[in-house]
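Hey,
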Amino acid sequence: MSEPTGKYSITMPRDIAEAAKARSGPSGLSSYVAAAVARQVERDNLNELIQVAEAEHGPITDEEIQALRDQLHQAGRHQANGGSDAA
């Protein structure tokens, strides 16, 4: 069952609106814009969580970020290899 919807009027630069309309495909501009706004809300929520975590535990270091990126890449390789650790 789909979520209830509302009709809103927004203003945006014409070139952005035209590019979005051209890319929206059969789902239409409203769905395209709704998906983009949903992604932005998710990003805003994640940024708020990061701010809370950093306030409690201190800022995340570049080394910690790189270690997590390395773990993600390793997990991706592991998954691409069908779960085996062979490279």
